[in-house]
Design brief:
Elements (H helix, E strand, L loop, with lengths): L3 H7 L3 E5 L5 E4 H4 E3 L2 E2 L6 E6 L9 E8 L9 E10 L4 E10 L6 E2 L1 H7 L6 H14 L10 H24 L8 E2 L4 E3 L5 E3 L4 E4 L2 E2 L1
Helix pairs in contact: 3-4, 4-5
Length: about 210
């Protein structure tokens, strides 16, 4: 699973598919059909990734990849959280949580998102996201990590990513990155893509 996918899921990206006639727009959540399967037909070409302004303006976020060691680029689990807050009322207005390696395709935690919207910002919120994520995701056992281990890590990195996205949203008068990825790019609050070298990459439970 390429980690760059997760940020687009969290930003409700639309994919422009050209087919030599009129073409079509496909929500990214519908594009991935299963392991190694995407919604492309004979003659189709993916030409654009479109992120509507309403899906990134006033949003901030953070991405965390957990891997067992620095030498292994393959993620044991990864999580992208994008949130919009009311800094005056200190309320979480909206949140989007996407996991990689937690299902056959990138997985949006819709039930968790719905339960968190409107909650006051504080420790109760962060405990809630940790609990709900573990109830919702369904990772598999593999030689790299057990399901039980991935569930434990999943709750923890979701909590950390939400905390950081909220912290960024509380900063006023500063354009801060919405999504950080280990692929070396950020999406800023104005939609501009620019290089970065400080994405959070958690290895063996510690930040590298």
């Amino acid at each position: 699973m390429r980690t760059v996918h997760l940020r687009f899921f969290s930003l409700n990206a639309m994919l422009r598919i050209a087919d030599g006639t009129g073409g079509r727009m496909v929500p990214i959540r519908d594009f991935y059909l299963g392991p190694g399967k995407v919604d492309l037909h004979q003659g189709d070409v993916l030409t654009h990734i479109v992120i509507p302004g309403k899906d990134y303006q006033r949003y901030h976020g953070f991405y965390i990849k957990y891997s067992m060691r620095n030498a292994m680029d393959i993620a044991t689990l990864s999580c992208s959280v994008v949130s919009r807050i009311d800094p005056l009322k200190k309320v979480l207005e909206d949140v989007r949580i996407t996991f990689g390696v937690a299902a056959p395709v990138p997985y949006r935690c819709a039930k968790t998102e719905e339960a968190l919207r409107g909650m006051e910002i504080g420790e109760e919120l962060y405990q809630k996201v940790e609990e709900l994520v573990r109830e919702e995701i369904n990772p598999r056992d593999s030689w790299r990590a057990s399901k039980a281990f991935r569930l434990q890590i999943g709750g923890e990195i979701a909590k950390r990513a939400l905390k950081e996205s909220v912290r960024r949203g509380m900063v006023t008068g500063v354009v801060v990155p919405d999504v950080r990825t280990t692929s070396g790019e950020n999406i800023s609050a104005n939609g501009k893509i620019y290089p970065s070298s400080d994405a959070e990459n958690v290895t063996g439970g510690e930040q590298s």
